[in-house]
Hints:
Elements: E1 4-7, H1 9-22, H2 27-42, E2 52-56, H3 60-74, E3 79-83, H4 90-99, E4 105-106, E5 117-121, H5 136-145, E6 148-152, E7 174-178, E8 181-182, E9 196-200, H6 206-211, E10 216-218, H7 221-227, E11 242-246, H8 254-264, E12 270-276, E13 290-294, E14 296-297, E15 300-301, H9 304-312, E16 318-321, H10 329-339, E17 344-347, H11 350-354, E18 368-370, H12 374-380, H13 385-390, H14 392-402, E19 406-411, E20 415-418, E21 423-426, H15 438-450, H16 456-472, H17 482-503
Parallel strand pairs: 1-8, 2-3, 2-5, 3-4, 5-6, 6-7, 7-9, 10-21, 11-12, 11-16, 12-13, 16-17, 17-18, 18-19
Antiparallel strand pairs: 1-10, 14-15, 19-20, 20-21
Helix pairs in contact: 2-3, 3-4, 7-16, 7-17, 8-15, 9-10, 15-16, 16-17
Amino acid sequence: MIKNFIFDSESKAIIDHRVSEEFHIPSLISIENAAFSIFQAIQDKLSFKQRIVIIIGPGNNGADGIALTRILKIKDYRVAIHIATSHLSEDGQREYAMLEKLNVEEIELSDVHKDDLIIDALFGNGIKGEIKSDYYYLVDYINDLKAYVIGIDIPSGISATSPLLPEKYIHNDLTVFIDSYPLSLFKYPSREAYNQYLLADINFPQSIKEEMSDKAIMIDSKIASSYLPQRDDEANKGTYKKALIIGGSIRMTGAIELAAKAALHSGIGTITLFIPKAIDEIAKRINEVMYIVAPSYNGYFSDEAISLLKEEITKFDIIVIGNGMGRNEASKKLLEAVLKSDKTVIVDADALYNLKNCRHLLNRSNTTILTPHLKEFSYFTDFNIADIKEDPFKCLDTFIKEYPNVKVVLKSSFTIIKDNKETYVLNRPNSALAKGGSGDVLCGIILGLCANTDDYIKALVSASYVHSCSANEKYDPNYFTASGLIDELNNTYLTLRKRKKGIE
Length: 504
C-alpha cells in the first residue's frame, strides 16, 4: 500500500540524494517526473483560454517550473514565462535549453496581469532563511495582483520545516506538494500560509521513505480502511472485550451516554457504565449496556466509589475514564486506581485534567491511550499552548520518550496520533466537530475499535478517520450534532469495509 509521508527539508534532501545514488535516477529525470505529476494534479484548474504565467527562480524549483512550461506549451496551453534570476541551476539550464525551440513567450514582471493564472516556481522546499530583499518587489507585485496563484512544492518564502511565517512570501491559493507533505503545514503560524493543497506523487521508492527516522504518515481513506479491524464471523461478544466506562455527573449526563453509544456502534463486545448514583436515571436510556451505580455526593462521585471500583475493575479488559465525570477529589482518586490496574486504559475529557497530579502513573506496563485537545495536553504537561502549536511533533516526542507505553491522540484542526514507534496525521479540518459531545463520540469510537484488535495504533488511526469522515458526509456543519455523528457511523463503516475488500 502506498503511504504519503510528511518530511522536513533536510529529510527531503536526503531522499533526493539517495534516489540519485542508490537507484541511479538522474536529477533531470526526477524533475521531468515532478513536472508531469504537477501537470496532472492541476489540470482541472487550467484553461486553454486563460494565459498561464510561470515565475522561475534559481534552484531546482525553477527547473521544475521550466519543465512544466514545456509540457504546457506542447499541450497547446497559452503559457508565458518570467525568469526572475540570472543564475539558473544546472538542471534549470538544461531544461531551458529544451524549451528554447518552442518559442515560449518570455515576459517582464510588469506584463503579468490579474487575469493570468500564475504558477509560483520561485523557491521551493530547500529555501534557507527568508527571501532576500532582491525579490521583495516580485513577491509584493504578485501578492498585490490578487490573481489566482498555484505554488510548486511550497509557497515561496515558507520553510518546509520552520513554524515561522515570514513577512515576505507568495500568497498561494493552491500549493502542489511534490511527493510528500511539509512539516510546516502542521505548525503555527506557518500553517496559515497554506490554503488548498494537492499532492503530486513522483513515485520515489517507498523503501527509502520508510527508513527515515522522522517520518510521519498522512492518513487517507486507503490507510483508514486497510487499518480497520476485521470482524470474525465465528466470534462472540467475549471476543470483542468487556469495557468499563467511568464517568458522568449531575451536570453532564450526556457525555458518557454519547461515548457508550458510539462504542456500541463501533464493535465493542459488552459495556458497563460506572456512574454516580445521582444520575442513575440514565440506566433507563441505553438498553444495551450494564450499570454499576456508585456512591455520590453533590451530584459527583464520592470517595466511597473508589473501593467499589477496585472491587469491580478486575472483571474488565479495557477501561475508559473521564467522560462528564468532573474534577473533584474523588475523580482524581478514581483515575489513580485505574492507572494502577493492569488494564488497557483510555483517558479522556475531565480525567485528562486530573492526570496532572498523577502523571507518574503513566509509567505503567500496560497501554494507556490519551485523547487530549491542545488545552488539555498543555495542562498535564510542561508545554504551553504556543509551544505545542509551534511544533506539536517535538512536544509529543519529548512526552512519549518519558512515557513509552503511552499513545496520544492530539486533537486540533488536525489530529496527530503518536506512540514510541509511529506517527500519523489526519488533516481534515471541520467546524462541524467544534461542538460539545464530539470528543465523547470519538472516545467511544476509539474504545469500540480498540476492542476489535490488539494493534491499538491502527485502531486509533481508523477511529480518527471514521470520526472525521462521519462529520463530513451528510449535514451542514451548523446543523450537525454529536448524536448526528453516531447516526452516520454505519454509512462510514460500510464505505470503509467496501474499500478494505477492494484493497485486499
